[in-house]
Design brief:
Elements lengths: L7 H4 L4 H9 L1 H12 L16 H16 L3 E5 L3 E5 L6 E8 L18 E3 L2 E3 L7 H16 L7 E7 L7 H9 L5 E4 L2 E2 L2 E5 L1 E10 L8 E7 L9 E7 L7 H11 L2 E6 L2 E5 L14 H11 L6 H12 L15 E2 L3 E2 L1 E9 L3 E10 L5 H14 L3 E8 L2 E2 L5 H14 L5 E4 L11 E3 L2 E2 L13 E3 H19 L9
Length: 485
């Protein structure tokens, strides 16, 4: 999209005094992030006053104490959410929605322990540094910079601190039962330049019952997938009466065909290893479940309705095809781009098969051209079909004054092109009418969010803080958001 650069205010960068203040407080920002990320704020069991357990409770209270220390008025919403207002006397106009909870530590860390942040080669490594504790403190330090430099605001800014973003966002739903959304909201929990479209989600379940076939050799069971929003990385096949030496050649063929790895993992068991990927970007994975079904067709198994069901699934979800064309729901529009579809949960026994898929749908998707077509395709292939979940897409106009103002601030500070993005994933603002995701990660950087050795570049932190400072000034100081000219 094109930014309105018709006046000098769109082209100028951040005020020199604010920029110098941010640079001078670099070490303080780093120290606060290190201390904040040392709190293992993974969701735990409910306790009275601690709705998500000790970790999120401790992280929320740390963040609120920090906000209060830096001169902002704070509120605690029963341990679910916290808020810090720049000036509670100003009319609520801009909410900045961030979260203090993190995903579990996981395995494979090499640079540091997950909750012991280290600074190395200009980066901070540790769980939460980029998702979302580091970006949250960028927003807080932006508010600090404005206050410290005496920059007047005519409209209010509130930093909202959530504690359950990673596990369903029940925190923010409770918050909005008590508070109305501000006129504008952005979340520093994604990437720059700006995400204004989040695709819809559509979960489908295919199932089929059949008579048990006792003829040998046969497939006893097949299981793959641990989450509906992730391409399965592993599939386990268990057999009866299969000469395992006869499986070697088909396994090697499958490895070449699909780029997966196969091993005989038990007396009558084969495990297929692929590569996981998020359901919003399934093209980046190698679906171990689908590969395992292909392997079944290559093994010398006795014909059965069970194997026929596996073959039919492969017609609906061909290996390596993630556009939904097998279900006849492939579609694309210019604004939100192509539909994606991935089969992520597999369960096959001697008498039943069930498969679940996750589709991320563009703005043009409807009951008629998507859900009904998928149902018809599944039923034509002999499966019962049901819808597990439907989430409508989220869109904020790229031409809105709010979006244009955020992008102009980003361009003015970074010198990079500001443009709107559409994603298949969902963010904290998915259900907010005028909510967008805005940073904090600069383009082209994979900070390993949710993975081992998560990090954020310190230069990225400083840049994001400056962008947020400029955005707040443009949105809440003087004339407010850019108006159509």
């Amino acid at each position: 999209m094109e930014i309105d650069n018709s006046d000098n205010s769109s082209r100028r960068g951040l005020r020199k005094d604010a920029e110098e203040w941010i640079d001078a407080h670099r070490d303080e920002l780093v120290r606060d992030i290190i201390d904040f990320c040392a709190i293992p704020s993974v969701k735990g069991s409910y306790e009275q006053g601690k709705p998500f357990g000790d970790g999120p409770f401790d992280a929320l209270n740390y963040a609120l104490r920090l906000c209060e220390k830096y001169g902002f008025s704070i509120q605690n919403y029963s341990g679910y959410v916290g808020a810090a207002d720049f000036d509670p006397a100003l009319p609520r106009t801009l909410d900045i929605l961030a979260h203090a909870d993190v995903v579990p530590a996981g395995e494979g860390w090499t640079v540091t322990e997950p909750f012991k942040v280290v600074e190395k080669d200009g980066r901070l490594y540790g769980r939460g540094t980029s998702d979302d504790k580091g970006p949250m403190l960028c927003a807080l330090f932006a508010m600090r910079a404005i206050k410290a430099c005496g920059i007047p605001l005519s409209k209010g800014v509130r930093l909202i601190i959530g504690t359950d973003e990673e596990c369903g966002s029940s925190d923010i739903r409770k918050y909005y039962l008590e508070e109305q959304p501000a006129e504008m909201t952005f979340s520093p929990d994604a990437e720059f330049p700006l995400i204004n479209i989040e695709k819809g989600q559509f979960h489908g379940i295919l199932s089929r019952d059949f008579e048990e076939n006792a003829a040998l050799p046969r497939l006893l069971s097949m299981e793959a997938g641990i989450a509906l929003n992730a391409v399965p990385q592993k599939a386990v096949l268990r057999f009866e009466g299969l000469p395992m030496q006869e499986a070697e050649e088909p396994m090697r063929e499958l490895e070449k065909l699909c780029g997966v790895r196969c091993e005989i993992s038990g007396e009558q068991e084969i495990t297929v290893y692929g590569e996981s990927a998020h359901a919003s970007t399934p093209e980046g994975g190698k679906n171990a479940g689908l590969a395992a079904l292909i392997l079944c067709g290559k093994l010398p198994l006795s014909p059965s309705e069970q194997l026929e069901a596996c073959e039919k699934v492969l017609e609906l979800f061909p290996y390596g095809v993630t556009d939904g064309s097998g279900l006849r729901i492939a579609m694309e529009d210019a604004e939100s781009h192509a539909l994606s579809c991935t089969l992520d949960l597999f369960s096959v026994s001697e008498t039943q098969a069930e498969f679940q898929f996750d589709s991320r749908t563009p703005l043009m998707a409807s009951e008629e051209n998507c859900y009904n077509v998928a149902k018809e395709s599944a039923q034509s292939a002999g499966f019962s079909f049901s819808i597990g979940r439907k989430v409508p897409p989220h869109r904020v106009s790229a031409d809105s004054p709010f979006v244009r103002t955020l992008l102009s601030a980003y361009e003015a500070v970074t010198g990079l092109k500001g443009e709107c993005l559409a994603i298949g994933g969902g963010t904290y603002v998915h259900d907010l009418e005028n909510g967008v995701a805005f940073g904090a990660i600069l383009p082209g950087i994979d900070t390993r969010m949710h993975g081992a050795d998560e990090f954020i570049d310190i230069d990225n932190l400083l840049t994001a803080t400056k962008v947020y400072t400029e955005a707040i000034i443009r949105l809440c100081g003087g004339e407010g958001p850019a108006k159509d000219r």
